Amino acid sequence: MSQDASGFTSSSAGSVSTDKWSKYTKIAFRFAFIYFFIQSVPLDWKFYRDLFSINWFHLHFYELLVLSRYSPQFFGLTGFANWLVVIVIAAIGAAIWTYNDRDQAKEYTGLYYWLRVIIRYRLAVGVISYGFIKLFPLQMPYPSLSSLHTNYGEFLPWKIYFNTIGVTSWYESFLGSVEIVAGILLLNRRTATFGAGIIVGFIGNVLAANFAYNIGEQVYSTYLFALAVFLLAYDTPRLYRLLIEQRFTIADKFIPSFTTDWLRKTRIALKSAFVLFILLFGYKTYSNYKHDPYLLPKTPGLADSYGFYNVKEFKLNNRSIPYSLTDTNRWQNVVFEKWATLSIKIAGPIQLDLSNGNGIHQEDIDKNYEEAGVGDRRYFGYTTDTLNHTLSLQNKNSNYKDDQLLLHYSHPDSSTIILTGVNENKDSIYVELDKVVKKYMLFEGRRKPLKL
What global pTM score does this model have? Predict the structure, then answer.
């Protein structure tokens, strides 16, 4: 039994020995302790504001997702700039700690253990939460019908990546299960190294994809990767001796000893709260997947309208305009989604929505995943007045907030929709849509006999 600078009594066999805690090792540890403590433990009052503002009787999974993504922010800074602030704080704190603790602590084995515990659980929250939104394929939804009618070159790279993963929903679920299993392995000190190793490989690939496709989650994926590397580094020397040098190696057996009853009860309470959080997050994520996928609108679209339509006839101010690939007023084709979104192909430049579309919104009109990163089509959310047979359209692109249309619709037959009304420029329009019955290779698959 021993007691180090942490103040916790512990027993150890094969743990980091005193002679390994050199002067520079201790300085490096002091910096790392302060840095990762600030990065991992919620110290920002806004975190607790969000936590206590949650209505637990009407809980949405994305409220838990926001909590799981906590990272400190300073002075309104964004991205890696916050890391620089933490580095400065950690450097100053390590200097003060070193000055006040000159040779007083022989080692920091206990503190090192508790720092790893904090990081293990923080990392587990991060990977398990994202694992669930992949296990129930929410993060990268199946491509919409509008996406299937968009040229490949009209997507930003991140949207190509999301559509590629979204097409293979079972593969996305597999990726999510890997994250969940790795996160669970972190919860036990005996399996934490295996979990960290899996996460280094998995998140390392995610990190590379983020930078290669400019997905927009570069900071958070780097953050999770750094936590996993720090955890894995603890056992890396032993793994090297065992696997590379093939020498006899003693596993780390540092065991904290809780000498008081309140410490034991606190440990059990914190573990139970963590498990409850994960179970609740999993349940709410599944519920969202079944009833209200957070990236896509939940309002049903116009009845019997789902499909791809050629614009058979188009009139602007009562003047018929023939089909054209260059006329910036003439509609070329229209897609009605299963939900209340209508997309229109029109020639002419579009000011792209450059966000990653992964924002969490309650209102359908604010859910911009469909049109984010797409330069070929205009996406409109709409509300339907079935009594007066009207559609009130609002452009979903935040760059065109004033782009609104009020259209009257009629359904002469099952394959025709006629829209009349006023466009965004206050011009009268008449649009006759002819539904195209089309087979999609993506749906049919190559193992089925197919005649196009």
Answer: 0.87
